[in-house]
Write a structure and sequence with these properties.
The protein has two domains: 27 residues; 79 residues, no CATH class. It is 82% helix and 0% strand. It is built from five helices and no strands. Helix 2 packs antiparallel against helix 3 and helix 2 crosses helix 5. The termini are far apart.
Length: 111
């Protein structure tokens, strides 16, 4: 019985430590805004070029997660963050459009 109590206490402390560690990170594991803008633009471009079937979609996400050094959990938490307040999406899409416009202008100026 004493062994079970120690195990329960140890498990509780470990769980609490993990909770504190996650909550101490200022954004949890949310992707920084500009990085997510670039991720999203690359995602749309890849889907447009390669298609949207499920196997291709998985490969695209795997590639982008590696490219941007993010995890599936990071992407999930970022999507949940934006979806929790729809006005965030408005701002985000504005940033996406601005970034796309900047890229177009930059490509036009190249000799």
């Amino acid at each position: 019985m004493a062994g079970k109590s120690k195990l329960l206490i140890l498990t509780a402390l470990l769980g609490f430590g993990c909770l504190v560690a996650v909550n101490c990170h200022p954004n949890g594991s949310r992707i920084p805004e500009q990085k997510f803008v670039n991720y999203y633009i690359d995602l749309l471009g890849a889907q447009d070029s390669l298609g949207t079937d499920s196997l291709t979609g998985v490969r695209i996400h795997d590639f982008l997660q590696q490219k941007y050094a993010v995890t599936k959990q990071d992407v999930k938490e970022t999507l949940e963050y934006y979806s929790s307040e729809p006005k965030r999406w408005d701002k985000f899409y504005g940033l996406v459009l601005s970034e796309l416009q900047h890229r177009v202008e930059k490509s036009i100026k190249k000799p």
